[in-house]
Amino acid sequence: MRNLTLFDRPPTPASPLRDAALVALLLAAATGLGLLLDRYASLTSLALLYVLAVACAAYSVRLPGSIACAVGAVALLNFLFVPPRFTFHVDAQENVVALLTLLTVAIVISHLVTAMRREADVARLHERRASQLEQLATELAGASIPAEIQLLGKRFLSRAFPGPCLVGLVGPDGALALPAETPAGIPEGMLAAIRDRRVLGAGTERWPDLDAWFLPLGSDDYVGGAACVRHAPSHDEGSLQHAQAICALVGQALGRLKLRGSIRAAEKESEWHRAQNTFLAAISHDFRTPLAAIVAATSSLQTQEDRLAPAERQRLMGIVLDEAGYLSNLTENTLQLARLENAGELHLDWQSIEEVVGSVLARVRQRDPRRRIQSRVPSGLPLIKADPVLLAQLLENLLDNALKYSTAAIELVVDAGGAFMEVSVHDRGNGVGAIEDQALLRPYRRGDQSGPRGAGLGLAVCRAIADAHGGQLVARTRDGGGSSFVLRLPVEADQPAAQAA
Description:
Blueprint: H1 16-36, H2 43-60, H3 63-80, H4 93-141, H5 146-160, E1 165-170, E2 176-177, H6 186-196, E3 200-201, E4 212-218, E5 223-230, H7 237-285, H8 288-303, H9 310-342, E6 349-351, H10 353-364, E7 373-376, E8 384-386, H11 388-405, E9 410-417, E10 420-426, H12 458-468, E11 472-477, E12 483-490, H13 497-500
Parallel strand pairs: 7-9
Antiparallel strand pairs: 1-2, 1-5, 3-4, 4-5, 6-8, 9-10, 10-12, 11-12
Subcellular location: Membrane
GO molecular function: ATP binding; phosphorelay sensor kinase activity
InterPro entries: GAF-like_dom_sf, HATPase_C_sf, HATPase_dom, His_kinase_dom, HisK_dim/P_dom, HisK_dim/P_sf, Histidine_kinase_KdpD, KdpD_sf
């Protein structure tokens, strides 16, 4: 890859002394070789030596030097080799024609070679510009924030033009963000370029007397900012087109980021609507059965209370309590899932996993008269950043799920090592069934459809809580039967001073 810091910079002008020295050296070489071959070569052959010198000069020096070399070659040939020698007088008319022809040929060669050099320089310049645009497009493809795109635009403009160059982006409030030390008049020119969506300044139709270009970053559809190239060449159309190409690439990158943000916003909106639809589906299906049971039981209690036996009244009241508790849990999980998916970042604080696990076990064991839950929580565990209420809800859902689907012992194991802490709940139930492990953690997905009823929300809430903490919840089938749910939470390397002490 060529050094891009030299892109489009004008080459250092050749020294007139260097050109004169090179012309003198070429003429001296041709003259010396001609004197050596004078006895053996004709005048035409000697003239070709000077033609060769003129061709070398035309390739090596600027046009004035090559023309001077052509005139000098004819003069030396006439003075040294054309009779009468050592004078500028020419006796034969044919020699006069030969000298004039040589001069014409030498000048034509100088012009042709100079034109070829100019075209070669233009071709190399176009190649360098194409390489620069290719590299800019490649680096812009990896840019993920507007500030990075702004920096790339300024860097490549500064490589292409002596500048100084400035790039400003339009902020969310519609204002152009520029450094405080920006010279007066520059912000106005950049805002005008954004407003008109066209190039302004030197060599353009508007403000042509300025020595700067003001270029919009974008096209007619979207302009994300503007660039200023100061001390710009006023009559260099190629350079202006190159600056426009750079700004167009930068504008496209800014437009791509804006489009990506719009797509994300649309996806969030779509997710929200899907959550609403899911919630409505839950109301229409999972809520209907318990509500019907509650209505039927309360209706019987209201209309037939005097004719019902005490045992039957107790049975109906139990139905009402059970179905109401199921509805309450279903509603809480649904609302919690919706809140977690749309709440953004949580407010996390340092928490002790031993205290969280202890409070959860105290509540869950009231619903576990057989004391099936066995816990292994080592001492001296590091603190974690967490929301204690949500983390407790996660663990409580996992333990309630294990109690519901397993009749054997249940293990709750906490282990810390490296950058993560793992909290595992192991049971010996029926496993995850036909649904794949991670699919079980999606809303309204259940593993064992023949087991206790449920809406399939508890584990989805658990996964959402884990994600909100920057962790991960994984469901696995255990060897020998049963399931394992493993919660991995990040552990901060910098622990509080009290913990470290």
